[in-house]
């Protein structure tokens, strides 16, 4: 196994030029124009300490489409779930596989895994960030508007892992991001202060202010995985943060609605919005496959960025 490798733990791990190459590669993959099998003979280990539909299926199918094989590892089955150290898991898996995708709780576990792995590590969601999802979302914006440059994205709701990745994306790519979060549910302060220096990222408290003139309205569940017991208290805190038809009207006429899914209709989004003509959520879900194939082709398959 080679030790010269790159990880994808956060959007800021890639330069703007590299991100652009990833989008171009993903667009080729989406169009069916990419015929190579850069993962032939290679294996991706997929560690899931939390549930998943999209991440699991898109990584597994994507690996297969690139000629490789994916292993699904849940805490019920692997010793990591019984307390084997992350570092030991990283060392051992590196002797068998060519890449590791992990979804877990503490971001520090992913950093630890990457520190001790001798193969690329890809972040499939932590409590802190969800970088693959936000790249898929930006791919969706590019497919809709032709570019992400000069676009205004509104984040309405919890300052969670998705919000944090949007902040990182706006910092690297320079588009405008306005986040509306309740006082006690702000995004990561360090990410926000780093991004705010460029003047294109703003945190407000009023969803209407964020939605005004937006090209993209984006939201997520009010209680993320691991916060299930907070559901009732969060429902109260977020009661004015539902993305409904009235809020969508404040955005630009051709604005799109995005949601990483799974969604709770009647909570963070009304059914008429997520199931309506401005919603791009199914393309967005499909784009997980294309962008992750691009990421794997680059990190595990030798595709140049
Ligand atoms: N959006 C997303 O990551 O979905 P899953 O939790 O189903 O993987
Ligand atoms: N913020 C959500 C995203 C799910 C894909 C969660 O962490 O549960």
* Total helical segments: 12
How many strands appear in the DSSP assignment? 9
Provide the number of structural domains.
2
Structure classification: alpha/beta
Strand content: 5-15%
Molecules bound to protein: phosphoric acid mono(formamide)ester, norvaline
Secondary structure layout:
Elements: H1 16-30, E1 43-48, H2 54-65, E2 69-73, H3 86-94, E3 99-103, H4 107-116, E4 121-123, H5 131-145, E5 152-156, H6 161-173, E6 176-180, H7 189-196, E7 201-204, H8 207-211, E8 216-219, H9 231-237, H10 245-250, E9 256-259, H11 271-274, H12 281-299
Parallel strand pairs: 1-2, 1-3, 3-4, 5-6, 5-8, 6-7, 8-9
Helix pairs in contact: 1-12, 2-12, 3-4, 5-6, 5-12, 6-7
Can you walk me through this structure?
By secondary structure, the protein is an alpha/beta fold. The protein folds into 2 domains: 132 residues, Rossmann fold, CATH 3.40.50.1370; 155 residues, Rossmann fold (3-Layer(aba) Sandwich). Helices cover 40% and strands 13% of the residues. The protein is built from 12 helices and 9 strands. The chain has a 5-stranded parallel sheet with strand order 7-6-5-8-9. Strands 2-1-3-4 form a 4-stranded parallel sheet, with helices on both faces. Strand 5, helix 6 and strand 6 form a beta-alpha-beta unit. Helix 1 crosses helix 12 and helix 2 packs across helix 12. It is globular. The two termini are 21 Å apart. The mean pLDDT is 97. Bound molecules: phosphoric acid mono(formamide)ester and norvaline. Phosphoric acid mono(formamide)ester binds next to helix 2. Norvaline binds next to helix 6.
């Amino acid at each position: 196994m080679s030790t010269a490798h790159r990880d994808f733990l956060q959007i800021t791990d890639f330069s703007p030029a590299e991100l652009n190459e990833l989008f171009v590669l993903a667009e080729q993959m989406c169009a069916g124009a990419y015929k190579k099998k850069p993962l032939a003979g290679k294996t991706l280990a997929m560690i899931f300490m939390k549930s998943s539909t999209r991440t699991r299926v898109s990584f597994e199918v994507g690996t297969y489409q690139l000629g490789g094989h994916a292993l699904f590892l849940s805490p019920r089955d692997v010793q990591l779930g019984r307390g084997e150290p992350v570092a030991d898991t990283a060392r051992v898996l590196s002797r068998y596989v060519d890449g590791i995708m992990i979804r877990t709780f503490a971001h520090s576990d992913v950093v630890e895994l990457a520190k001790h792995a001798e193969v690329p590590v890809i972040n499939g969601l932590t409590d802190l960030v969800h970088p693959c999802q936000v790249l898929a979302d930006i791919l969706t914006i590019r497919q809709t508007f032709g570019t992400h440059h000069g676009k205004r994205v509104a984040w309405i709701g919890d300052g969670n892992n998705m919000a944090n990745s949007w902040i990182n994306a706006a910092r690297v790519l320079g588009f405008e991001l306005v986040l509306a979060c309740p006082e006690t549910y702000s995004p990561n302060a360090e990410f926000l202060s780093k991004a705010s220096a460029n003047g294109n990222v703003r945190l407000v408290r009023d969803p209407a202010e964020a939605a005004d003139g937006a090209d993209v309205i984006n939201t997520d569940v009010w209680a993320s995985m691991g916060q299930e017991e907070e559901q009732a208290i969060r429902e109260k805190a977020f009661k004015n943060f539902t993305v409904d038809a009235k809020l969508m009207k404040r955005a630009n006429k051709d604005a799109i609605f995005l949601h990483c899914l799974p969604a709770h209709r009647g909570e963070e989004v009304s059914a008429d919005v997520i199931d309506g003509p401005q919603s791009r959520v199914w393309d967005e879900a499909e784009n997980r496959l294309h962008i992750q194939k691009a990421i794997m082709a680059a990190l595990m398959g030798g595709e140049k960025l």
